[in-house]
Design brief:
Elements lengths: L28 H7 L4 H28 L2 H30 L8 H16 L3 H13 L7 H9 L9 H22 L4 H53 L9 H4 L1 E3 L2 H7 L7 H6 L5 H14 L1 H6 L1 E3 L7 E2 L7
Parallel strand pairs: 1-2
Antiparallel strand pairs: 2-3
Helix pairs in contact: 2-3, 2-4, 2-8, 3-4, 3-5, 3-8, 4-8, 7-8
């Protein structure tokens, strides 16, 4: 799930998007067609569970902060903020799904209504603004109109150092503020969107915490939520975006796209199968619940896909072609 800072610059007439760079074997077309089936109840249930976990963690951490020794509860609260941010990242990935009508392809109004109510309000983003930006990324991939490529250049995302955890953290932190400011502008967040998100958190986070732990608990829960939204979530999102492409050494969508399949990436940075990004760029209409299965099927049944796909198994690793290695 990605975007950029500004409107597209004028482009030369001859500039063309990257070609796909991959041809699906005819024998697998039926499987790929079947993978495009949407499951609205499943996706909505995933969103509701993400929200429930995030709210529960915020309320429990707030109760601990006001009911136990502060210095004892503080480490748990910091872990709680990370968990809440991870759940919000999962919701953002479901916003990405809604932008492709992958919630309910044949009921687009319900697709957008559910996306707004279940993921837009908690995360403070506008689906229409995100959709416009993200579909430009797909349609104009690799050109000056590609918002992600411009963001990669603006923040030098390919230059992030991955030689050690310390150097990678430094690379992230030096880009985080500019990244978040650009993200807010790109998704169309404004005072009304922010106000709606704050009202949502007051009703669904602060109020339950207040009922459990009084006014102090309500303030603690809301504070933890805002730290997660504005402090931790942008870091997770930046890491996720920096994982997804390498434009500088490629001229096709297939070769410029990275699949991040390590455990930490799948659990923390790329929830809801967001890490299977190569499959997503080849077939954006395949919903999140079918991405991993499709990737596994292609690894087993298409030697070209298995040989050429670029994989990153750990956050600090350099992506490389999978070759004959069985990656799941």
């Amino acid at each position: 799930m990605t975007s950029y800072l500004t409107r597209p610059a004028a482009r030369p007439e001859e500039e063309k998007p990257y070609r796909k760079g991959y041809r699906l074997p005819a024998a697998l077309r039926v499987e790929i067609a079947a993978a495009h089936r949407t499951r609205p109840v499943l996706t909505a249930s995933c969103a509701a569970l993400d929200v429930l976990i995030a709210v529960a963690v915020a309320v429990v951490c707030a109760w601990a902060l006001v009911s136990t020794n502060l210095w004892t509860a503080l480490p748990s609260a910091l872990i709680g903020a990370l968990v809440v941010a991870r759940q919000l990242r999962a919701l953002e990935n479901l916003t990405h799904e809604a932008s492709h009508y992958n919630w309910a392809r044949h009921h687009r109004r319900w697709n957008d209504v559910l996306g707004f109510l279940l993921v837009g309000l908690p995360t403070g983003g506008r689906l229409a603004a995100y959709r416009e930006s993200h579909l430009r990324h797909h349609g104009r991939f690799g050109t000056t109109d590609d918002p992600d490529r411009r963001r990669y250049a603006e923040l030098d995302l390919e230059g992030m150092r991955r030689s050690s955890a310390a150097s990678f953290c430094a690379s992230v932190l030096t880009r985080a503020v500019r990244y978040q400011l650009g993200w807010v502008r790109e998704v169309g967040s404004d005072l009304s969107v922010t106000a709606a998100m704050l009202l949502w958190s007051a009703a669904f986070v602060a109020l339950p915490a207040g009922l459990c732990a009084g006014l102090t608990g309500a303030v603690a829960a809301e504070g933890l939520w805002l730290v997660s939204v504005f402090g931790v979530l942008p870091v997770l999102r930046l890491v996720a975006e920096a994982d997804e492409h390498v434009y500088s050494d490629s001229d096709t969508v297939f070769d410029a796209t990275i699949s991040n399949v390590g455990l930490v990436q799948r659990v923390l940075v790329h929830p809801h199968a967001d890490g299977y990004h190569t499959v997503h760029h080849l077939w954006p209409g395949i919903p999140h619940h079918s991405l991993r299965r499709t990737h596994t099927m292609l690894m087993e049944r298409d030697p070209e896909y298995a040989r050429r796909i670029r994989i990153r198994r750990g956050v600090l690793q350099t992506p490389r072609a999978a070759g004959a290695t069985p990656v799941r």
